[in-house]
Amino acid sequence: MSDVEQGAETSGEKLLVVDDDPFIARLLEIELAAAGYQVRVANDGQQAMDQVGQDAPDLVITDVMMPHVDGFELTRSLRQDPRTATISVIILTARGLSADKLEGFAIGADDYIVKPFDTPELLARVRGVLRRKREMKDESPLTGLPGNNRVQEEIEGRVASGGEFALLLVDIDRFKAFNDHYGFPRGDQVIQELATMMQDVIGHTGGEDGFVGHLGGDDFVVVVGSSAAALVADTIVQRFDASVPGYYDDEDLARGWIEVLNRRGEPQRFEPISLSIGVASTQRRTFAHFAEVMAIASEMKNFTKTTPGSSWAIDRRGT
Fold this sequence. Notes:
By secondary structure, the chain is an alpha/beta fold.
């Protein structure tokens, strides 16, 4: 494969090469730039961290044996900081020992290449790591569900096919207050268990073409056949309500509310979390595009929020 062909496969991703050997660093810089990547070079791990802080790359290729901050320490630092945790890392080293490889993977490296390396192999590894990174961008890191881009692709495909479907827009009521009171770990638990539960509901009642996506935060999308929408929405609501008591401390549950400071610094009481589900369906109308489907579902979801407790509502108007 020529350099031109290799470059055609890239999207101009930003790479940071970290090596205290100027010859190796320059060689990597030339080869990777010829393949179509934007390449910067750092001489050690500390310099690399400074550059990452200024402009985060898509991928770091780092040597292990370096003064001051070595490749393992650099990788560990990247993974421990939420701002850099998703940066891909390839470790490059002259040591091919299994223990070194295991340590590299244990601290979060995406791949491991032993010197002396073969340039075509290195470029193939880089392309593979970056491809996986692009695929991960379309997946929620918290739930593992398809993210915004894949949700839009799914709905646009359904609209284009002209087939019947229903979209359920699922939102947790008073979730911010819950998070503020109990902390993010317990909030993440609610999000993850809701995601798992909805997948289970789809598997049992939504048909073979059911789809669950995570838009972020406490917002989800469920897509099923229009005839299954009511059953799926009702089942999700019932199962969620049954799980809610387990998320609260006993005294809060007995009291029936939690107290959280509002934006003015005043204590405010919040009832237990519940679900609001708005449903847009092709049963009585057709849709022209993704935004129209989302707008109708959002309108119905907002309507359900005016009622106490968990609820769902289907748009039954014609086109």
